[in-house]
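Tokens in:
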């Protein structure tokens, strides 16, 4: 392996107690560099150390600034602080050079490898990438420390010392990289609250029509009520399609305002409805807002949150949705009657009013602003508040992360925006990606055609005549749904995705068949409730979250947004089919109404066994290789003061040397008393200056 000169490697004078073997020197070096991860240099060689060595010295003074734990908290006496900072140059997307520490490079990789989408259950992928980078950085750090020790003592570290150093460095870097996952600023909390409330309304309005079916405008026909329920899923695809255009052209914050006012408008019509036609129109508008929200919320939170927090925020919004379903069931106890059913519908209006009051404090997505103008001062101001940064250079580094990640996740080499149409064409042209897209769409169809929304839309109607209290049964189903969502989150961290799909489809199939047997009278009423609960539980551990999570895991980051958009539209279309068809299935098939769902689940099980790939995540070794390939493509220059630095950027190196020489000459003139303070003309020798410049660029000594 190639090795670069190690900075700070001047020999430290031995004390009288250190004799020929150099053990005292070696011990002093090891104690000095303890807790200081070294650094190397990026080059075109993929495995070259990239953590710049920070040197070692027994006497230290305070470091004025730096990254906690990833830069030395002290610097040697007599050595300039500019020589001790991590000075790896990385080329930004706009061609300019910027400094990146090992920690910043790790965050840079996370930005590029984690899609700008907040998806339920994506925490495992984030942790895998973080650990892979930390291990890689620790390996490079260990190599540099060993190089430093060998250069001064002619002895390599022992295996025990190498292992201890690697573990120590890996834990330090891992702690810093995961800090973003526990630090939430006020602007991010407000955005999370607004997005969470939007998803709460999606869940609430999914189930709010379940309980009051017999008390809202009594005398309505089956077709009128099923249309009022199912038209919610008709508005969904329209909202999903419209969302992409609006949030790209008007911004994410404007998109959130559209969601809030559409929910408010639909909620008011539904609350003040005079007949079923008003209810149907209101449900379409609310469905439109729900579809809009299902596209906007993952993108908006994904672009605001740091990479290590996106999975967590996606999980919180999913819990908001299932909590909305549960709350609508709870509120049905006091309000699902002839006098108070309008209060159930007014909850949407109340929540929208709260959101409108918070709207002035909602921030725009910095990624969207930078996509329109990379020099946007508004974007930089938002990033400073969003990340809790103090200094402008920290803001610029974060801007660089956003810009580079947006470029890496684009399909048409356009940093500003990648149209879904272009991305979809690229996906369809690639045979392997096309196969993954088909798998994703099949799972979306299976999710809805499994009949889960028949339970959430019509469970009260289904339980009538089956159990004594249909409303109680519906509420228990909603509560189990919330608990199963949490259980699924814990399960997804350890289980394979395909395995979960198999268990989910198989368990739901058995539950469906058992429900048919219960309705035929082979089991008692309590067994009917039990199998409905098992049906919902098996859904939540597999077919509920996996079709969405699998999109983020199967596709490269640049394809995730498009795959999500197509999947969302198909999901809403199948949702409508179930909503409009199930009342007729129950009317004409009776006890066999769940047989079509059982057939779909059996086909899903066969598909998962024969076609579906495993997507839990790449192995640590594969992630490490991907990180190495990514980092090896970056052009980075050493900050060494030797002539070898000129291979990277002669102009930059020459400028720094010229300024250093100018300072030195001025100091010498001041000491001699000949410094020109501006009272005498400066003598110029253009020919000599030009020749010195050309000689320095060529690496030759100046005359």
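Residues out:
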């Amino acid at each position: 392996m190639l090795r670069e000169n190690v900075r700070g490697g001047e020999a430290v004078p031995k004390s009288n107690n250190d004799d020929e073997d150099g053990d005292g020197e070696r011990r002093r070096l090891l104690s000095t560099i303890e807790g200081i991860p070294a650094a190397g240099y990026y080059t075109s060689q993929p495995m070259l150390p990239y953590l710049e060595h920070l040197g070692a010295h027994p006497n230290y003074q305070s470091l004025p600034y730096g990254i906690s734990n990833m830069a030395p908290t002290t610097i040697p006496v007599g050595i300039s602080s500019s020589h001790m900072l991590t000075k790896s140059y990385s080329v930004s997307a706009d061609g300019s050079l910027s400094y990146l520490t090992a920690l910043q490079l790790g965050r840079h990789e996370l930005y590029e490898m984690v899609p700008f989408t907040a998806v339920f259950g994506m925490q495992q992928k984030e942790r895998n990438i973080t650990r892979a980078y930390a291990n890689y950085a620790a390996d490079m750090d260990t190599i540099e420390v060993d190089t430093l020790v060998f250069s001064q003592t002619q002895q390599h570290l022992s295996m025990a010392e190498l292992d201890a150093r690697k573990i120590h460095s890996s834990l330090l870097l891992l702690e810093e990289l995961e800090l973003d996952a526990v630090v939430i600023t006020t602007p991010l909390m407000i955005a999370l609250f607004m997005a969470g409330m939007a998803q709460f309304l999606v869940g609430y309005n999914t189930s709010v029509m379940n309980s009051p079916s017999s008390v809202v405008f009594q005398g309505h026909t089956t077709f009128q009520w099923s249309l009022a329920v199912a038209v919610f899923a008709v508005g969904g695809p329209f909202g999903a399609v419209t969302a992409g255009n609006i949030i790209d052209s008007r911004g994410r914050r404007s998109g959130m305002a559209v969601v809030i006012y559409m929910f408010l408008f639909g909620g008011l019509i539904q609350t003040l409805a005079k007949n079923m036609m008003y209810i149907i129109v209101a449900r379409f508008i609310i469905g439109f807002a729900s579809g809009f929200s299902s596209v906007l919320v993952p993108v908006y939170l994904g672009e605001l949150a740091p990479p290590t927090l996106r999975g967590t925020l996606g999980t919180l919004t999913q819990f908001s949705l299932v909590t909305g379903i549960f709350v609508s069931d709870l509120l049905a106890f006091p309000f699902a009657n002839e006098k108070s059913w309008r209060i159930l519908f007014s909850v949407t209006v109340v929540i929208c009013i709260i959101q409108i009051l918070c709207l002035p404090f909602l921030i725009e997505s910095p990624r969207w602003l930078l996509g329109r103008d990379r020099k946007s001062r508004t974007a930089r101001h938002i990033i400073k508040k969003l990340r809790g940064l103090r200094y402008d250079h920290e803001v610029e580094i974060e801007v660089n992360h956003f810009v580079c990640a947006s470029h890496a996740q684009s399909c048409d080499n356009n940093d500003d925006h990648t149209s879904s149409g272009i991305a979809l064409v690229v996906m369809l042209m690639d045979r392997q990606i096309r196969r993954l897209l088909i798998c994703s769409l099949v799972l979306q169809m299976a999710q809805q055609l499994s009949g889960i929304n028949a339970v959430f839309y019509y469970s009260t109607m289904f339980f009538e005549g089956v159990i004594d209290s249909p409303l109680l049964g519906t509420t228990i189903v909603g509560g189990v749904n919330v608990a199963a969502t949490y259980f699924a989150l814990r399960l997804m961290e350890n289980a394979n995705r395909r395995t979960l799909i198999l268990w989910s489809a198989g368990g739901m199939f058995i539950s469906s068949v058992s429900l048919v047997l219960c309705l035929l009278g082979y089991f008692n009423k309590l067994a009917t409730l039990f199998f409905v609960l098992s049906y919902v539980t098996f859904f939540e551990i597999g077919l509920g979250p996996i079709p969405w999570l699998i999109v983020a895991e199967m596709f490269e980051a640049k394809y995730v947004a498009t795959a999500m958009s197509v999947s969302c539209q198909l999901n809403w279309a199948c949702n409508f089919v179930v909503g409009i068809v199930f009342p007729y299935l129950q009317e004409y098939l009776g006890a066999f109404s769940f047989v079509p769902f059982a057939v779909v689940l059996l086909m899903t099980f066969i598909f998962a066994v024969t076609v579906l790939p495993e997507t839990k995540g790449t192995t640590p070794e594969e992630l490490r290789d991907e990180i190495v390939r990514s980092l090896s493509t970056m052009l980075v220059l050493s900050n060494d003061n030797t002539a070898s630095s000129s291979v990277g950027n002669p102009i930059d190196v020459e400028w720094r040397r010229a300024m250093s020489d100018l300072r030195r000459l001025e100091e010498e003139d001041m000491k001699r008393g000949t410094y020109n303070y501006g009272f005498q003309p400066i003598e110029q020798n253009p020919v000599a200056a030009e020749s010195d410049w050309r000689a320095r660029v060529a690496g030759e000594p100046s005359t």
